[in-house]
Amino acid sequence: MTDSTEGKSEKGISTSDVTQLDVKTGLHLAEALQLQLDVQRLLHEQLELRIEEQERQLKMMIDQQQKTNESLLKGQDLDITPFAHFPSKM
């Protein structure tokens, strides 16, 4: 070994080696965070699409139930409107 140890620690790693490791680690972290953001964005979009589809299905079910209720009420010759508001007695 040589007597020249300028810029090196006791373990033989120079400050430029540490700086390069820090830069590489920083780049890996930035890439990992970007990938995580991309995945979260895609999951959010998929979730929104699923919610919208469930909303459409639920609306169709409610509409069908209202039609069924109206049909049953008309079949019984009742003059009742579903979901009508009746004033309370005081």
TrEMBL record:
It comes from the Eukaryota. GO terms for molecular function: DNA-binding transcription factor activity. Residues 30-71 form a coiled coil. InterPro entries: Myb_CC_LHEQLE, PHR1-like. Residues 28-68 form the MYB-CC type transcription factor LHEQLE-containing domain. Pfam families: Myb_CC_LHEQLE. Keywords: Coiled coil. The keyword Coiled coil applies. This is Uncharacterized protein isoform 2.
